[in-house]
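BUG: 3D viewer hangs when loading the predicted structure for this chain

Environment: internal workstation, default settings.
Expected: structure renders.
Actual: progress bar stalls at 90%.

Input used:
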Amino acid sequence: TGIEDIGEQQPSPFTAVWEIHAGIAGNRNWSLHSLETMLKNPKNNELRNMSFPADPRFLLCLSTASVSGADLRTEVYTPKDLEYQMDSQMKDYINNTGKGFLLNKELNIVKLSQV
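Structure tokens produced before the viewer hung:
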């Protein structure tokens, strides 16, 4: 469950939260949904001039407010600190045994998130 489930439970202003304008990048208005879609497959996006290599850290920097998703950061992502912040986000997620990665040597269990 996450923020996208709010609209399924009852009609509210949050129903279309993922489809409303969230910001501008590359002279284009972006919704959270369109941004997430583009980040999942950057080489196949409509903005060829913004092409960049796929990086799984991008998706952990976006939060859908779901239980299994990455925790929200307590700071804004900035160009100057972005590499550090994305690395930190990935490490925090992987080290969270309830979300990212779990190794139980006693029971011979390894769990890795599909996210």
